[in-house]
């Protein structure tokens, strides 16, 4: 009986811990079901019917998905993917060196650089983009400075171009590239780089054969964190006046202007499937999680 009592007490404590764990998980589970799973299921059901919002008993069909193969819709999807690709590429070209230097800097400079990366999150992205719009407009500070320096005779039209939308995209999302790259470089064992240099490897070869492969998980995480949001961001093209119609613009117009809930829901499901596919591909090639700190 002396051995049974500690075992019973241990089992009782384990059961109590399991109940406490279940109670702690329950609110998040309810949140996920009510505010994520059920709305997504409703959107999926709406995309599989015609004639308005989904109601029980309506016939299911794939006609809304077939409608997405129209040439103009495919062009919008291609434009969105192209813009997302260039946004990710430029964010990597700028963000990786910045994250690398930030990881290798002294504590004082690292804190300052980290603050510069995080501070933009303290204000609304919409406000910051309007700031760029003021800077880039015809009578804005940038054109004024170029005229004062004698570099231009007439104002350059920055707004309303593909480049202005791309600039806004990179500005809004580059932090999501910098932080994973910084995290990967910060955790790297630089004695391996020193060993490569001791064996006669030049700096560029040591970077390509040691540093880049070791920091690849951070690069992949940054690419996912930049690419996926940039596919769906649509308000930037509206503000910067690029004239681009992106997937997000198309979904908004289908739901709020055309009032075609069924095709709009089908577009939303395609966008969700694309995001999920990118994440699954990221996991398949070796990504573990998307934590950035």
What report would you give on this structure?
- The chain is built from 14 helices and no strands.
- With 293 residues, the protein is mostly helical.
- Helix 3 (71-104) packs across helix 7.
- The protein is globular.
- It starts with a helix and ends in a 9-residue tail after the last helix.
Average pLDDT level: 85
Percentage of residues assigned to helices: over 70%
Q: Give the structural class.
A: mainly alpha
Which descriptor suits the 3D outline? globular
Distance between the termini: 51 Å
Relative strand content: under 5%
Q: What low-confidence regions span 5 or more consecutive residues with pLDDT below 50?
A: none
Major sheet, described briefly? none
Order of helices and strands: HHHHHHHHHHHHHH
User: Radius of gyration, Cα only, in angstroms?
Assistant: 25 Å
What's the total number of strands? 0
Number of helices: 14
